[in-house]
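seq:
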Amino acid sequence: MMKTRSNSVSRRFLLAGLPAGILVAACSGGRKGVSAEPVKASASDNKWLQLTEDDWRARLTPMQFKVLRQEATERAFTSPLNDEHRDGVFHCAGCDLPLFSSKTKYKSGTGWPSFWKPLDGAMETKPDHSLFVTRTEYHCSRCKGHQGHVFDDGPRPTGQRWCNNGVALTFRPDAA
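struct:
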């Protein structure tokens, strides 16, 4: 089935009232192709891996902790970063590692900030078997904070949709 703008808008309104777990499954698109094999990145910094659960709770808001440290998913259409369109860089809310350039952000209609490519070395991926289909989950390569899932239904040039929890990001606009 060919995806059109009207299908995307209809899907958005249909999915807006569903519970997060069902919504996440629906946003997977049932498509395969993005590798679910673990991928190691190179932006490691050991101090982030030594933080305790209490350290993380002190650093993060309760929702950031749930998403970044417990792999939860925020409700769709709740993040102000979904509508962020300025030039700049999106960083990990846990450790401040730059993750995405605003040049790769696009409007996916899913309710979460979406990108067609992360910055080099910013992410690690692993298979996620928590729902009915295997999805590819990704984490910040430095602090291992959960960011979201990557799917193969994005725009060119990569064809990927890096669907990110907005609460797991901070945004820094380019200097004017």
